[in-house]
Design a protein that fits this description.
There is one protein chain. By secondary structure, the protein is mostly helical. Helices cover 64% and strands 0% of the residues. It has helices spanning 11-18, 23-35, 39-66. The N and C termini lie far apart (57 Å).
């Protein structure tokens, strides 16, 4: 995805690139900041980044609650 220009992705593909796979945040947003600077990016980027970080921590903690170690090796004396 990062090898193609951002303009060719429209509709649902663009939503998937920016939400499910945050390729848009990693590759396209920094390029847009350099080529077409807008002050709204300075407010939107931290908010979206915070949402991604919060959701990653939340999903990790949900998985951690269901985790059980499969190590059945006991100490033999």
């Amino acid at each position: 995805f990062p090898m193609y220009p951002e303009g060719i992705f429209k509709g649902i593909t663009r939503i998937v690139l920016y939400s499910v796979f945050p390729v848009g945040l990693i590759f396209y947003v920094p390029v847009n900041l350099l080529t077409d600077f807008k002050t709204t990016y300075l407010f939107i980027i931290p908010i979206i980044s915070t949402i991604f970080i919060w959701s990653a921590i939340h999903i990790f903690n949900l998985g951690l609650k269901k985790y059980s170690s499969s190590c059945l090796i006991g100490i033999r004396l």
